Amino acid sequence: MTEIFDNIRRLYRFYTPANELADYVEFFSESSAEDTYRHVADNRFTIRMFPSWTPTCYINLGAPYQMDVGDNRYLIRKDTDVLLLRNSIVERINLPSDHIFTIKFYPGGLEAILGVSQVQFVDQVVRLETVLPADLIQRMKRLQAFDERIELLESFLLSQYGGWKKMDHYRTIVTDTIGTFAANGLVLSPSQLADRTFVTSKTINRYFHRVIGTSPKQYLSQVRARTALSRYVSDMNQFSPYEYGYYDMSHFYKDVVKFTGQTLKQNVGK
């Protein structure tokens, strides 16, 4: 299964924060054995996810599994929990025995709540104890229900957020830049965005590297490709590449290949 092209969300339960965490945590999720069996039965399959620059925690509640991050393969043992930045393509090899709880932060969210810069995790898969207390992880694993795990982790993150409430200047500029990009149809260049936020292009570039770990050009081009591709898959007959700043469909196709490493023909209408 492939993110965007396939509805991988149907295999999970989701919870989206509606409190102070909403700007920093995209969601909590947990794989559902019932939903997975309903859609794939006992078949072994993979889930392929594209770059998003979103720090993501994987807490293993089940059996060992394998994960490919970029060109490297990792065996995630039963007692191992990991954090990765998702700055490259991630592919997880799934088994019916999998049971994984996920916390997905927005870019910069890890730093806003826990004071931990995500930049150090570029191209890395690290033990989750790097950012979350080991005893918290173990307490969470002993709980039986999804709602109970949500309550424990949300309470912890809110308590930590209180210590980092002071808005960071770098993060504020980056967040405002991303918001301006989205509000203007995903078409403004980094230099145009710099003008809108009253800073120089050099400053915008430095801030993106400081907060996210990549240039504004690379990050925003991936945002545009992800958004446009999602729209195309949902209703290709109503899709217009011009609404997303592409010159024509050929320009859009090339961006899809650059972003996913695959062609539309390989995935749409198969």
Description:
This protein is of the alpha+beta class and 270 residues long. The chain folds into 2 domains: 8-164, Jelly Rolls (Sandwich); 169-267, Homeodomain-like (Arc Repressor Mutant, subunit A, Orthogonal Bundle). It contains 10 helices and 10 strands. Strand 5 and strand 6 (72-76) form a beta hairpin. Helix 5 crosses helix 7 (201-211), helix 6 packs across helix 7 and helix 8 crosses helix 9 (249-260). It is globular, with a radius of gyration of 19 Å.
Observed structural traits:
Jelly Rolls, Arc Repressor Mutant, subunit A, 10 helices, 6-stranded antiparallel β-sheet, 4-stranded antiparallel β-sheet, globular, 2 domains, single chain, 18% strand, 270 residues
How many domains? The number is: 2
Estimate the helix proportion, in percent.
25-40%
Count of helical regions: 10
Name the assembly state: single chain
pLDDT averaged residue by residue? 90
State the secondary-structure class: alpha+beta
Largest beta sheet: strand ordering: 1-2-9-4-7-10
Outline type: globular
Stated plainly, the CATH topology of the largest domain is called Jelly Rolls
InterPro entries: HTH_AraC
Domain HTH araC/xylS-type: 168-270
Pfam families: HTH_18
Organism: Fibrisoma montanum
